Q: What sequence folds into this?
């Protein structure tokens, strides 16, 4: 069976993992346009080549990042999301542009 | 061309050891256990008198016989002691209150069943169910493996000593009967025995 190395748990059978989609930089929700936000939420690049993706190790519910080649399916690197997320993102509510009356 | 003749079974070697030393399964599901998670869980548990493992996927036995396993950077699983029937851990669960600190209670008695597998053959038994190398050289006392065994998610904690190997296995509580049967089936060739919790007193 194919084996992937979980950054927390070490090498595990691929059946222990769940794919979580492409990793994408989140646009600033306060300043981006609706089209930019919809693109972030719904669209995927789906490129042929090395991609960065979210994966989860099911038994430990641990999410991490993977660099994988979509042509060869070779897993090049797995790493903790802390490498990318090094600052807390606050989602402070702003006054709604449209208010129901 | 493949043969349709039935293969002759290999007879197991005569047992040299007592069967209890070979492998024994005990259902500890009735013993209290609890989890805590959050940036301040380590601080909270240390203030409550627990010695914590210094890295994820490690476990430490406390002076009173209870065990603390660290499942991630900020999550801990605490298993009650046989000595007090888990009373200390049940009290810890009861005294926790939600406040402004980042330390959240994870009730584990209803979510996880708990089996103890002990004896000299336990790594061989688990090898029939699980893809991870749980032999002593790769999985020494104090190690934790969060993995899949018999096709369900399990937490395996090696809390044995050199004299007596023992794995604590935690998994979905609704799968207790299924998983127990799977382990017993794997234990059969090693002449495994089931013990009641009272036998451990």
A:
């Amino acid at each position: 069976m194919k084996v992937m190395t979980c950054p927390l748990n070490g090498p595990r059978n691929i059946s222990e993992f769940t794919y979580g989609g492409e990793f994408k930089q989140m646009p600033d929700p306060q300043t981006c346009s609706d089209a930019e936000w919809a693109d972030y939420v719904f669209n995927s690049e789906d490129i042929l080549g090395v991609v960065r993706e979210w994966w989860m190790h099911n038994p430990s519910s641990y999410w991490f990042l993977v660099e994988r080649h979509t042509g060869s399916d070779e897993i090049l690197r797995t790493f903790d999301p802390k490498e990318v997320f090094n600052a807390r993102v606050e989602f402070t509510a702003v006054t709604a542009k449209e208010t129901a009356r | 061309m493949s043969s349709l003749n039935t293969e002759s079974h290999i007879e197991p070697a005569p047992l040299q050891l007592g069967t209890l030393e070979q492998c024994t399964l005990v259902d500890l599901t009735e013993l209290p256990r609890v989890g805590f998670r959050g940036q301040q869980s380590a601080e909270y548990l240390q203030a409550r008198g627990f010695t914590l493992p210094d890295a994820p996927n490690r476990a430490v036995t406390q002076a009173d016989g209870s065990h603390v396993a660290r499942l991630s950077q900020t999550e801990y699983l605490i298993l009650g002691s046989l000595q007090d029937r888990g009373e200390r851990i049940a009290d810890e669960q009861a005294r926790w209150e939600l406040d402004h600190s980042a330390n959240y209670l994870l009730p584990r008695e209803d979510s996880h069943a708990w089996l103890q597998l002990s004896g000299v053959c336990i790594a061989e038994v688990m090898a029939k169910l699980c893809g991870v190398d749980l032999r002593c050289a790769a999985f020494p006392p104090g190690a934790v493996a969060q993995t899949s065994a018999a096709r369900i998610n399990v937490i395996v904690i090696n809390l044995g000593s050199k004299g007596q190997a023992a794995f604590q296995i935690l998994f979905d509580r609704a799968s207790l009967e299924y998983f127990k049967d799977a382990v017993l089936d794997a234990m059969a060739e090693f002449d495994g025995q089931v013990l009641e919790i009272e036998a451990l007193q």
About this structure: Chain A touches chain B through twelve residues (CB under 8 Å).
